[in-house]
Amino acid sequence: MPPSSAPPHHPTTPFTVVDEITRHCLDPAEPETVHIEVHLPSAPDPARLRTAFLEALRRHPRILMREAPGPWYRRRYEWQLTPHPDTEGTVVQHHDTSDRALAEARARALTHAPPLSLSPPVRLEIIGRVLLVVLNHTALDGPACLRVLATTAELYGGRDNSPVSATGPARPGHNPRYPIPGTGFAPVARVAAGTAPGAPGNGLLVADLPVPRRPRGAPYTVNDQLMVATARMIAEWNTERRSAPRPMRVTMPVDDRPRGMDMPIGNGTRLVEVPFTHEELTDSDTAELLLRTADRTRALKALSRPQLGHGAALLTAPVVPVTVRAALIRQLRRTVGPWTSTTLLSNIGRVPYPLDFGDGAGRARAVWFSAPARMPRGLTVTTASTAGRLHLALRWSGTLLGPRDGEHLRELFEKHLHTTAALDDDPVDTTGDNPQNDLDNPSDEEASPP
Hints:
Elements: E1 12-14, H1 17-24, E2 33-39, H2 46-59, E3 65-67, E4 78-81, E5 91-94, H3 99-111, E6 122-127, E7 130-136, H4 142-157, E8 202-210, E9 214-215, H5 222-240, E10 248-254, E11 270-276, H6 278-283, H7 286-302, H8 310-315, H9 322-335, E12 343-350, E13 366-370, E14 379-386, E15 389-397, H10 403-419, E16 428-429
Parallel strand pairs: 5-6, 10-12, 12-14
Antiparallel strand pairs: 1-4, 2-7, 2-13, 3-4, 6-7, 8-15, 9-16, 10-11, 14-15
């Protein structure tokens, strides 16, 4: 073949452990998507925004990638890096800016994942004052895409969108004061089925709530308050449906990456599981449970471990072809379903970037995220804090819950979050609005007020 007709060379990088396991377990009925929704005061200019977004992709080249083709006997999946997007569909403008158009875009975010075969595995939809980003979670996570959106805002509006602190959060070692309960070999609590399960795909509900108040100097964080509210929401939901009492585990993503332009783009969070006994959730008073939860989460976050644990690293070792590993991991996932954590709480925390698009569109007023909710968990809780408000997204598997169930779960979450809040006459700590806080901790104990 003459040199002039040779195919272009694209550098490659291997899948991470998270990428590979997600790739093995893909289910067309419930695509592995993350949805990010940014609400602005004014509608941006679509052409100008498109230009800024495409330039932001070039400034974070790790996002410009597609799955490299390969034979069935290959030992690794690889990402192929590209110099530019493969498709014009990376940015989509909608002339209809109604609530109906937004609802339809949300539905697409749950059903239509950007394909891994095209670079980048991300889609940006512009619906009036709303930017709705959908990403394929096999390739990258919400915080990484948020970094790209911050660069987009800076290029569009000409204003600095750097985080207050570009370094990753410090996680000093912590010896727990309370014993961390184990669940042993007993199956953990599952979210009980709702009133109208059976529909394919995911459902979604978003809500705008006040950030819970804390007494000044409280030893727990807003993240701990959200953890307690999530666990008690499910405990009460299951009690209403007369489910057998069981211990509960809540998966919590932890992000240690720096927030600046050098932030690694991809799936960079590690997962820890926070356990609760049934008695803690039903019998303990709220103040005691908050203290126990704070002690527990601080110790677990400080542990040094692989993203998905040592077992996942072993399962993805490139010893046998990926097709063999895929069959093994899918079977193992079905087998360990009863021991999978009850739910996932992904707390982005205070959005660390201004997301200021300048005079043309303004600074973000609200940012919602939602994480995939496939069975056996079937329910995820995602939160972010913007402009002093808590933006909650509940996402569930349609085979487990229906829309009315989602509304009731929101009511239970709001009820239990309120019980964790400081009384009106208590001195209140306002660090929940501190932009220096962790992505996974909107009110960390080492943060200081703005």
